[in-house]
Amino acid sequence: MASGLLALLDDVSALVKVSAASLDDVPTQVAKTSGKVSGIVIDDTAVTPKYVVGLDPSRELSIIYHIAKKSLINKLLLLSPAAIVLGLFAPWAISPILMLGGAFLCFEGYEKVHSMFSKHHTDDKGSPTTETETITPEELEKERIKGAVRTDLILSAEIVAITYATVADKPLVTQIAVMLAVAIFITIAVYGFVGLIVKADDIGLHMAKEKHHQQVRNIGHGIVKFMPHFLKILSYVGTAAMLWVGAEIIAHGIPFTAHALHDLEVSLAHLPALAWLAKVIICAIGGLILGAIIEKIVVLVRKVIKK
After folding, report:
1. Taking a C-beta distance cutoff of 8 angstroms, is the pair 98, 253 a contact?
2. Which of 65, 259, 265, 300 is 20 to 30 A from 89 (CA-CA)?
3. Which residues have CB under 8 Å from 239's CB, separation 6+?
4. 62-90: string of b/e by CB count within 10 Å (b at 16+)?
């Protein structure tokens, strides 16, 4: 009895030591993964602010909080467990699922670009081509949150997939710890910075008050004047990022295009900034073309269903 208990304690001790050794590797793996997903994090940060533009300023932080909360829940309770299960039982399914998400990003990015030009065309003619739909601020807020969460889900899936690929050969306890740590860290970083961006004008107004030094007031006035232009630029960047990331996800899932992108990066290895820019432009153009094709297919399918 005593020997059996001692053997059990020895097994538990060995298990604890293995788990501790695995957990010691977590910070290194988190740092490595964070570097790999930095491009997607930038895209996520650029995409999100456009979902709160034009809404009640007093609701901006609340909206960002709701998006961040759903993003974290999706990463922790949906995407990370799904990645681990698929990695164990159906690793071949991860790439096609990500490619479908990439196709959706291209489709949504194309619709954003199309709506920009359609809006300009409508303004030039002086009258809208379609009947204006009445929507309450509450309904608009809900739609914006749904759209932001839908886009974030795809970008988060890519982050989770890259994270899993980084730790796929590690013990299960390390996989879980790293994926949880990355999910929490990335979500806080992205939406904390987004919150700072959308409230920068309020910060500027506070700095511009008479009680502050003249130099501080000047900086505050400068922030207030600059932020509307910055948010507009960021909206364009976010749309371009959706096309870029969507196309790159698909390209990495097809051997021919994956090799082509790799060859491009190798050929411009001595000019890393140019290599990155060339890849971004090619992917964005490819995403726009693919989005246009998907949009035509969607319209055709809708017509067939109606008939």
Report:
1. yes
2. 259
3. 47, 50, 109, 112, 113, 116
4. ebbebbbebbbebbbeebbebbbebbeee
Q: What pTM, to 2 d.p., does this model score?
A: 0.70
Angle at 41 between CA 35 and CA 45, to 5 degrees: 150
Tokens coding 166: 């980084």
Q: Encoding tokens for residue 272?
A: 């890393």
Supply angle C-alpha 107, 112, 117, rounded to 5: 125
* Contact between 245 and 158 (Cβ < 8 Å): yes
